[in-house]
Design brief:
This protein is 36% helix and 22% strand. The longest helix is centred in the N-terminal third of the chain and has 23 residues. It has two domains: 241 residues, Aldehyde Dehydrogenase, Chain A, domain 1 (3-Layer(aba) Sandwich), CATH 3.40.605; 215 residues, Aldehyde Dehydrogenase, Chain A, domain 2 (3-Layer(aba) Sandwich). The strands form seven sheets. Strands 16-18-19-14-13-20-21 form a seven-stranded mixed beta sheet, sandwiched between helices. Strand 4 and strand 5 form a beta hairpin. It contains 16 helices and 24 strands. It is of the alpha/beta class. Bound molecules: NADP nicotinamide-adenine-dinucleotide phosphate (NAP). NADP nicotinamide-adenine-dinucleotide phosphate binds next to helix 7.
């Protein structure tokens, strides 16, 4: 039997008492390691995190915690090769796609180390200016942000075992809040190894960072009122978390990042082959194939003026046709595997649903697998579907509301910008939309039109062709999250991310007392 990974809870490494769940190489089908959380003392471990980890973190200043994050990033940097090997084996990703997760996580951690340093040697944050409460300026109200006294439970999705950990843990730890991470079982190995490396390096106080791998049973029950939960995953699991007694009755604060039918929009007036047209085509093909489309931010719907449907379809399909699919260990392969058999089945089912309402413009089945056995490997070629005409875009409900978490997108023609915005709104709120064009005013108007429906709007014009950071690439400086169906959450956005891990309080006092607060 393969190695059983240990959990880190209550300041010690503990193996579950059950047989465990095997993590499998999605290309070779071989068992890698096992995870198990049976028999863990969750309540005792959570108490240790709150009382020992939380107290030690809160005793530090923001600048000291920022230095702690920088030290953690240094430890992780020195072990990058190990992480790449785990990602190849457990996520089935090619090197460039592993980098999005691993180096994306390290970049985010390092960014928070820098941002935290700018907060200096303080232990609470002022929120705005003091305001007088009466005629005289002697009695005033000052709002403060103080670190919550609970812990942060991070429940993460399978597609970003590194980035998903650090984009949440960095702002939590910087805020002075201890972290318990529960990675998705299918890819828990990388998260577990990173936590192990940082814990063993001794750069964090005991109880500051814990990891529970395996079943989520009992985690929500162990939460107390001042804890927070940051969840990333499917809308179905999000609904369970929202209705859990911890949230519904004990007021545990929750942030949800759920699924999202993200859009790319080519504005009217751009000719086939124009720079804006080519930028859209390139970005769509990249977004569909990066990490085999297993990104919450990936482009799922592509909106083009009706007259450009044919040329956009041909241009995107010809890029997709060049994507080599298969074993990520083969240097000629550009797109690796889906993460598991379950995901492969889910993608096939989702595709069948979409195909009932759209025509196939490029068929993933046309890609022969390189160096991989189709009977074993969880690999699929990229598939582009389309709605043929603007009336078809109106008629096809599923193309607007079905998230296929794989290399699949739909090309949707529209009549005019107003119509495009109406169609995009049928996603009921998304993480990100990108808009392509060459007229700065028209781009700004479209961005404002898209703003209420998205957490981020990514505007691409020829002058930023080589500068823009990518539709699906989540930068720690910008907000990540989205309204409505996307979960209604907010993460990152620079120091804004710290808000979730702090409590806002108004202190009403004499001006003299207020002067001593910060
Ligand atoms: P999932 O099945 O909902 O699982 C997410 C996490 O929740 C896993 O750690 C899972 O553990 C855990 N979980 C399952 N049932 C639970 C319960 N009853 N209570 C507490 N935790 C529970 O989602 P996934 O399949 O891993 O991820 C794919 C989905 O995530 C896609 O829909 C994608 O759009 C979304 N996603 C969103 C973002 C974003 O930032 N908005 C980012 C990435 C992915 P187990 O693995 O052990 O079941």
């Amino acid at each position: 039997m393969s190695e059983l990974l240990k959990n880190h809870l209550g300041g010690r490494w503990t193996a579950g008492t059950g047989a465990g769940t095997a993590l499998v190489d999605p290309v070779l089908g071989t068992e890698l390691v096992r995870v198990d959380a049976t028999g863990l003392d969750l309540r005792g471990g959570f108490a240790h995190a709150r009382e020992t980890g939380g107290a030690a973190l809160r005793a530090m200043t923001y600048r000291e915690r920022a230095a702690m994050l920088a030290a953690a990033a240094k430890v992780l940097q020195s072990k990058r090769d190990d992480y790449y090997a785990i990602a190849t084996a457990n996520s089935g990703t090619v090197k460039n796609d592993s980098a999005v997760d691993i180096d994306g996580g390290l970049y985010t951690l390092s960014t928070y180390a820098r941002l935290g340093d700018s907060l200096g040697d303080r232990r609470v944050l002022l929120d705005g200016e003091a305001v007088r409460l009466g005629k005289e300026p002697l009695f005033q109200s000052q709002h403060l942000l103080v670190p919550t006294r609970g812990l942060a439970l991070l429940i993460n999705a399978f597609n970003f075992p590194s980035w998903g950990l650090w984009e949440k843990a960095a702002p939590a730890l910087l805020s002075g809040v201890p972290v318990v991470v529960k990675p998705a079982t299918a890819t828990a190995w990388l998260t577990q190894r990173m936590v192990q490396d940082v814990v063993d390096a001794g750069v964090l106080p005991s109880g500051a960072l814990s990891v529970v791998c395996g079943s989520s049973a009992g985690l929500m029950d162990a939460l107390e009122p001042l804890d927070v939960v940051s969840f990333t995953g499917s809308a179905d699991t999000a609904a369970l978390i929202r209705s859990d007694a911890a949230v519904a009755q004990r007021s545990v604060r929750v942030n949800i990042e759920a699924d999202s039918i993200n859009s790319a929009l080519l504005l009217p007036g751009e000719a086939p082959g124009s720079e804006a047209f080519e930028l859209l085509v390139k970005e769509v093909a990249r977004e569909m194939t990066q990490k085999s489309g297993q990104k919450c931010t990936a482009i799922r719907r592509v909106f083009v003026p009706e007259a450009l449907y044919g040329s956009a379809s041909e241009a995107i399909a010809s890029r997709l046709a060049r994507t080599t699919v298969g074993n990520p260990r083969n240097e000629s392969v550009r797109m690796g595997a889906l993460v598991s058999r379950a995901q492969l089945n889910a993608v096939r089912e989702g595709l069948a649903q979409l195909r009932a309402q759209g025509e196939t413009l490029h068929d993933g089945a046309s890609h022969a697998l390189v160096d991989a056995d189709a009977a074993v490997a969880c690999c699929v070629g990229p598939t582009l579907l389309g709605a043929r005409n603007a009336a078809g875009s109106d008629a096809s409900d599923r193309l607007h509301d079905t998230e296929v978490f794989g290399p699949v997108a739909t090309l949707l023609p529209y009549r005019d910008t107003r119509h495009a915005l109406q169609l995009i709104a049928r996603g009921h709120g998304s993480l990100v939309a990108s808009v392509y064009g060459s007229d700065a005013k028209a781009l700004a108007d479209a961005a404002l039109g898209l703003a209420p429906l998205h957490g981020r709007v990514h505007v691409v014009s020829p002058d930023v062709a080589t500068l823009h950071t990518g539709h699906g690439n989540v930068m720690p400086q910008s907000l990540h999250g989205g309204p409505g169906r996307a979960g209604g959450g907010e993460e990152l956005g620079g120091l804004r991310a710290l808000n979730f891990y702090h409590r806002r309080v108004a202190i009403q006092a004499s001006t003299a007392s207020l002067a001593h607060l910060a």
